[in-house]
Specification:
Four copies of one chain form a homotetramer. Chain A has ten helices and ten strands. By secondary structure, chain A is of the alpha+beta class. In chain A, a hairpin with a 2-residue loop joins strand 2 and strand 3. The interface between A and C is small, with 4 and 4 residues.
Chain lengths: ~350, ~350, ~350, ~350
């Protein structure tokens, strides 16, 4: 029921869960039917992200990240049915392989255009050099969509993205990021030391990569917000059930007004967050501008999660700290969510810009 | 543009605005077309409430309250085209007369079923005795829908509602509630001292009044929430314009990160509140159960308004306190909104009940 | 008991209260005994400010401001027992005259060194030209300590301060600042149009005024914080008494857990604010550096007041809005307190500077 | 520098640290000089608790808990220099043995008087039966001061306290409480299954134990509050140093206004918490009533810690999650602090009682 605890102990178990998810089609939500997906909407993807995160944020991220790499390949490459990429897509869809996306570097967190991992032409292919860090899923990923700079000093216009395979020479995976808090996320870093990419590994050429990344980041912000909703929803449900069974001072927890108002407060803000996620997801499906809406949904939902998961943990008493409940795990994940795919600070700047333009 | 300041000084001006609103059909939004209204949706009414409250909460309440009394009459009474009630409806629709609804009493705030204003049969009509207080709009209303108890000790089942006209004997209007904060709302109290109501003045007989009031209160909670959105929206807009013109320490206010984040925070929560209002209004139009949803929308929107109007006032510096801006006036109104049509405490109890039933 | 409501209606009443305060020595707290004061400590002054503000922030400000002008005169001028200034001091001590201090100008709020009111030498005296705005107490003050620039473009080093008397030519008092919220403070603005100051009216010459003002502002921040404590203390006391008498849903308000926790939350933060004020006041009496401490006390106490006065108002239900209670009045005053003598934003910058120097 | 990470991996290391602490006299702060302690004040103990918690809350708790058991023995027992207890005291003072106190049971969290672990007379000694849970330090403690019921149904008056040694028959230590969050605290549970206590193991007889526990709990609340100050202080210091070195968008973190205000906010509330701790500690040393003051200090300091450690973690970006920094560890500890020695809810009730008595 809560895969992540298992995940942390046993990579085999995660693979089992992953394959179950793949069999249910969760790696192919937005992938066209002809390539083995469901051609489903972004709203559908958001809902799945929310439900998966009820169980575990890290697992939800793994599934959605793998999905996104598939989606990038089939959307932007002219696949041949028997080609190398088509075979890779099949592996990813069936969860034989796990994928993720790598933008962040040790010295370039939120400031994406300043990345320094370099790709230089090398024969018919490319030579990749650099380091990526804080990459969710990178501790287990077989395939990584890596953003690089192709032209020193070119900034946004020189950025491109390559598929990198972890079992090829020049890929050096670092030890998992040293924190219990992030362990269920498989957050890790890696070095590219003379990694040779083939020409067809270039998914987004310079001139297109930055723009496409910015476009897809609105989606990411929206489903991360949805995941926060899923985590709070699960915590609220666990606490509500606990409050109907556990007594304090001779009455059920739920019969203490202060106790039940704590849950009511969480329920109110959770509803608000869900509506913001739904509105942003609908706008994405309708191809509207969503920079502002997705930013607002993410700031609201992540703040809501950090606040209310901590409050609901406290509502459980010391039991809230036990590993048999999801509170500690979800709380760490919520903190990560405030940083991933645009930190709260960066998003407040985006929202301020929209605000200023409007007046 | 900001009627209330005028309202406070001059009753004639409010009548002018009121008639303008009536001419635009705002007193007849949900009233059937055959009775001179627009047969519009509740969603439409909510939107109008929001826009009116951008200018003034008290004025918005006056218009909507008048509308609601008309709506009660045409919905629940078998009107004859040339009857007394039809004539009254016409007066109200054209804003010749202003109306409001009176539930609260000096010693019965949120606990509606314990009201003690009595109606006893007197000949072919009824004799009304008692006192109502904190009634929004009562300082100017000509027609008041008054909730009474028909049978001492009967509680909810004995409650009925009568139309009371302020110019008939036995209606004694008290001085306006002594607070600058509530002055634009025309909040007042009145006594019924042997007021004789005709048989046809009985709009909701005992056995139906309480239930109908509970039904309509979900609507009221939703449009009060909408009004809070309107007030915050106006404050945000004023502050944003101010920040683009006023300097501090050599740069525009907007160029101070702390300053613009204050506005971004307000914009985020305002969006959330609007979505909650829209969702509740849609559910009302679709005849779904909305007790929980309307309660959540009101708690969220009123808290949001109290918090962010104060923050936006502060963003204006000392100018925020000036009467040429709406901050002080809207902030008082937001505090009133936390109490009217179900206090935050009462709504938290409702939300807790739904929460408990679900688990 | 609550002078300000009276103050708003009747200037005579304020004079009565003022004279009562003067008779009790409140205009001479820190003034040396030989000049008719008490030679008391700053801690004592802070405590008096707190107690006066329980009744009314505006009245507290009037008394303390008058006190401060006296204190400036006797501290920095070589008084002759039968001189003009000594006579003025006597008038101020006995509250025959009311005083205040004027720094702020229409376009120079928090940025004190950029004031543009000019003083130019004129014969044996000075000619003053300019405008001051948002001056607490200026609507009633007879004597004003006005900060001016003596040398265009000189910034801080050119600033000086003169005593200005409201009944002399060239002093033009504007109408009271147009806001109900600030009316009990007598906040107003005035113009100096060719006002001729005598040589002895120069209290702080250029080169000393800015520094002395910065020094005294730490005291002002501390007693404004104390006044916020006084207001919250009074609101808490009123609410606690109300909760022991008023029922809701068949039990005393105090018997609702949510209700009494609201008061407990206020009591906790009030204690914290009081300790911060006491610590800063002690440090001032001990001549320690208090920039950081006074800034922290003011930010904490003003935030505390804005938050908890609003919460305690709500705890009273609709009665909280009535003018017979201090909530609405104290809430407006608390908002003013966040702006006066260094806005929250400016103080956060000061605190950040100390923080940075420490690490 | 950060013992706990080591603690989690290696029990030997904790023993080394423990012995270092003992050598510096930290196990004997309040213990009389004739018994090998320092006869220092409670204020001194509070300060030490704060400093130890900068490094690790769990380690601070271990040292202080051991200290408290020693203090209980020497204070309440008539020690003979060559007796069994005197030898035990020597072992504890030198950290050869670690101690803790056990009140909580699986079904009696905050409601202390309802504990059900029983002590029945058995020959010249006592037979102990029952289970204790969520006991901080119990996973490593050699000596435990266990609170028991001596007379079924007697409630508070029947409660007594015995010294229990972990290496004697009938003491069954359960596995450490299953949560990463609590691992540095050594939180655990144990069973007493026919444990035979000697007559001299009875430290607090029935009739005195409950009262003495209530007395000492005010001290515990105060030093737990102090520990929260220590943890926030350390996080603030780490973040401030980081902000002076790390860049984002081309400037130092500290040069972003939103970033540095986050630290300023933490610094303000930290100062307030420290003053509340100091005031409560002084009152304890002066033998004043401190129930209300200690409760307020604990509620304020624990809320402050939960809020600001999370905010400061976020200020570090993804690095805040790394185990080389104390944020994740301190945040978990702060959550535990909200529950131990009186949950926030229970303390709000205490504060409400004082509030009510005062008015």
């Amino acid at each position: 029921m809560h895969p992540s605890t298992e995940v942390e102990r046993n990579t085999r178990v995660i693979q089992t869960f992953f394959k179950m998810a793949a069999q249910k089609g969760l790696t192919g939500i937005e992938v066209p039917i002809e390539w083995g997906g469901s051609s489903a909407s972004f709203q559908c993807k958001t809902l799945i992200a929310e439900i998966l995160a009820e169980a575990d944020f890290g697992f939800a991220m793994s599934v959605i990240n793998t999905h996104n790499v598939i989606s990038n390949i089939v959307h932007w490459k002219d696949l041949k049915a028997d080609g190398v990429l088509a075979r890779l897509v099949a592996y990813l869809l069936s969860a034989e392989k796990i994928a993720c996306t790598a933008l962040t570097e040790p010295h370039a967190g939120s400031d994406f255009s300043s990345i320094s991992t370099m790709a230089t032409v090398d024969g018919s292919g490319w030579r990749l050099e650099g380091e990526k860090s804080w990459i969710i899923n990178a501790s287990v990923a077989d395939v990584i969509l890596v953003y690089v700079q192709t032209q020193s000093g070119a900034g946004a216009s020189g950025i491109a993205a390559f598929l990198v395979e972890a079992d090829r020479p020049g890929f050096i995976r670092n030890e998992q990021f040293g924190s219990q808090a992030t362990s269920s996320l498989g957050t890790s870093s890696f070095k590219l030391d003379g990694y040779l990419a083939h020409a067809e590994d270039l998914i987004h050429p310079a001139g297109t990569a930055f723009k496409r990344a910015l476009h897809s980041i609105n989606g990411a912000r929206t489903y991360v917000a949805a995941m926060c909703c899923g985590m709070v929803s699960e915590c609220l449900s666990v606490a509500a059930q606990y409050g109907a069974k556990r007594q304090a001072f001779g009455v059920m927890l739920h019969d203490h007004q202060g106790w039940r108002w704590r849950l009511a407060d969480a329920a109110i803000d959770l509803d608000a967050a869900k509506l913001m996620v739904q509105a942003a997801a609908l706008a994405i499906d309708q191809d509207q501008k969503v920079v502002d809406q997705a930013a607002k949904a993410k700031v609201f939902a992540t703040r809501m999660a950090v606040k209310h998961i901590a409050e609901l943990l406290h509502a459980m008493g010391a039991n809230g700290l036990s590993d048999i409940y999801p509170f500690v795990r979800h709380l760490s994940a919520a903190q990560i969510a405030t940083l991933t795919d645009g930190s709260t600070e960066m998003l407040l700047e985006r929202i301020s810009q929209s605000q200023r333009q409007r007046h």
